[in-house]
Specification:
heterodimer; A: 313 residues; alpha/beta; Glutaconate Coenzyme A-transferase; 9-stranded mixed β-sheet; 3-stranded antiparallel β-sheet; 11 helices; 30% helix; globular; B: 257 residues; 7 helices; 14 strands
């Protein structure tokens, strides 16, 4: 595969990244389990009013809920659809229970099941075996696939194992702390299923807090989760995962999350949220302006540095 | 009768007391997070706390609001992702206990967190498994926590998200699960164990709650332990820690009367 791009730079705007790579009907993997969610890109997907997207992730929270409520997503493969300590996800409920704004179809697995499915795709395998899902209704109802799981008797011991099919994505979105101009992508803090989710996609679009000099990345290569040749586009998006956290950059905005949970209890409230925070702002830059510098300053992470390590030999 | 603590506080305290010193515990969102903070501070300083998004041996300085909270990262022993937390630790059998919430539970401790009603056309669509199926399938034992009423303690689940003891003796082995099963159920009314037939029974009723009230809130004829007693109340120190240090904003414990 020729990975040499015919573009002068991978660093593009979120508008161009979404226009170029996210099409109607895309199988879209979005990142982050409870941390580092790529909201700058997801909001742009909503702004560009994409349709018929299949969304893939282990743990959906506001990310999946917004895309479902905005009518962007009509199929999901995943395991969790809620707002964690803040309660149930209302758009998701309205869509599933009442078909508002449209009926959604869900293929459900567990968190680990989804991660194993991404891992299978990432490694070029048709499936991965696990010891979860056994005996549960997770494997009883298949919605999108003709066969969603298979119990195999281990040919060596006779023990039962659950095989889960590879989950391939057309495009993966991810929010990372930093990369260099080639896209060598570094993440620290909790990884969730980001490594495997990204590696399972044909195209990776990364939003990052900052693009740093190549030497900074290459002097600390253990932190890299994807080599640059696998990253197709880079969007510079400081505070891009607001209202979620990004380790070393900012804390969660609990007030904002509470506001979302409360506003989205009604369809009208959600439409207001869309107008206020997505359609009514042209870009991530505008979104940050609306939040205000004082609020962003308050969320900024306190310094807590580790010691440098010696990579010498 | 007015108690000097809430039932949510009592639940958090008893969640914490399930963790023994030196054990490896898998902590889920909500009251178990407060329980884990209490355990680590009071009776289980050597317990190893695992959080699903990839934190191993966490020592958070504030109570995390979710399994991915960045406050879990500084001073933890090791970081990875779900592959490390679930694949390497849970699946390989290194986790002693895990905590799970439930919307419905049956006599064998099977759990529904997916739908109320018919699967394709439910009255309420719930969050689904998340990591619950993984924890319930793979931990050495699990502790289930929920607010109790008759519609939640059901004879038949609307959907089996996470296996407890399935249909009873030998069932987990038969379907291929490697180990585990529910050890305790902690509700706002009482604490339950499982007998030799792997059926739930009442171990203790909370102060201010009668056995009668418990029976009214279970839709099968719940067995009562011959040694049934009142649930031990929280200690003043447990309450102080919960209120002043671990949940001063009442995020998990809600408003206090």
């Amino acid at each position: 595969m020729n990975r040499i791009r015919k573009v002068s730079s991978k660093i593009i705007s979120e508008q161009e990244a979404v226009e170029t790579f996210v099409k109607d009907g895309t199988r879209l993997r979005s990142g982050g389990i409870a941390v580092r969610k790529p909201f700058a890109l997801l909001n742009e997907v909503v702004r560009q009013r994409k349709k018929d997207i299949t969304l893939l992730l282990s743990g959906f929270t506001e990310d999946g809920d917004i895309l479902v409520g905005a009518g962007v997503v009509n199929k999901l493969e995943g395991s969790y659809f809620g707002l964690e300590a803040l309660g149930l996800a209302h758009n998701y409920r309205r869509a599933y229970e009442q078909g508002i704004p449209q009926k959604i179809l869900i293929e459900e697995y567990s968190n680990f099941g989804m991660t194993m499915r991404f891992m299978a795709a990432a490694m070029g395998l048709p499936f991965m075996p696990t010891k979860t899902h056994l005996g549960s209704d997770l494997v009883k109802y298949n919605v999108l696939r003709e066969k969603k799981a298979h119990v195999l008797e281990d040919p060596f011991t006779g023990e039962k194992v659950m095989l889960l099919p590879a989950c391939h994505a057309d495009v993966a979105l991810v929010h990372a702390q930093r990369c260099d101009a080639d896209g060598n992508l570094q993440v620290w803090g909790q990884i969730g299923d980001d490594e495997w989710g990204c590696r399972a996609a044909k195209v990776v679009v990364a939003e990052v807090e900052e693009v740093v000099d190549e030497s900074i990345i290459r002097r600390d290569p253990n932190r890299t989760i994807l080599p640059g040749f696998m990253v197709d586009a880079i969007v510079i998006a400081p505070f891009g995962s607001h209202p979620y956290q990004c380790q070393g950059y900012y804390d969660l905005d609990l007030e904002f999350r509470k506001m979302y949970a409360s506003m989205t209890k009604t369809r009208e409230g959600f439409l207001q949220y869309l107008e206020d925070w997505i359609y009514g702002v042209d870009s991530h830059q505008e979104y940050l302006k609306k939040l205000g510098s004082e609020r962003l300053e308050r969320l900024k992470a306190k310094p807590y540095f580790s010691e440098p390590v010696n990579y010498g030999y | 009768m007015t108690l000097p603590y809430t039932l949510a506080e009592l639940m958090a305290v008893h969640a914490g007391r399930q963790i023994k010193d030196g054990e490896v515990a898998f902590i889920g969102t909500g009251l178990p997070m407060l329980g884990a903070m209490l355990a680590k501070r009071l009776h289980a300083p050597h317990a190893v706390m695992i959080y699903e998004s990839g934190v191993i041996d966490a020592r958070p300085k504030r109570t995390p609001i979710s399994i991915g909270d960045a406050c879990l990262v500084p001073d933890s022993a090791m970081l990875g992702g779900l592959v490390e937390a679930i694949g390497f630790l849970l699946q390989a059998g290194h986790v002693d206990l895990g905590f799970i919430g439930a919307a419905q539970i049956d006599i064998h401790g099977n759990i529904n967190t997916s739908v109320i009603g018919e699967y394709h056309h439910p009255q309420v669509r719930l969050p689904g498994s998340g990591g619950a199926n993984d924890i319930g399938s793979l931990a050495q034992r699990i502790v289930i926590m929920l607010a109790q009423d008759k519609r939640k303690f059901v004879e038949k689940l609307d959907y089996l998200t996470t296996p407890g003891y399935l249909w009873g003796k030998g069932a987990r082995q038969e379907v291929g699960l490697p180990r585990g099963g529910p050890a305790k159920v902690i509700t706002n009314l009482g604490i339950y164990g499982f007998d030799e037939n792997l059926e739930m029974y009442l171990e203790s009723y909370h102060p201010g709650i009668t056995i009668e009230k418990i029976k009214e809130n279970v839709s099968w004829d719940i067995k009562i332990s011959p040694q049934v007693q009142e649930t031990e109340p929280p200690t003043p120190e447990e309450l102080r820690l919960l209120r002043e240090e671990f949940d001063p904003q009442g995020i998990f414990l809600g408003g206090r009367e």
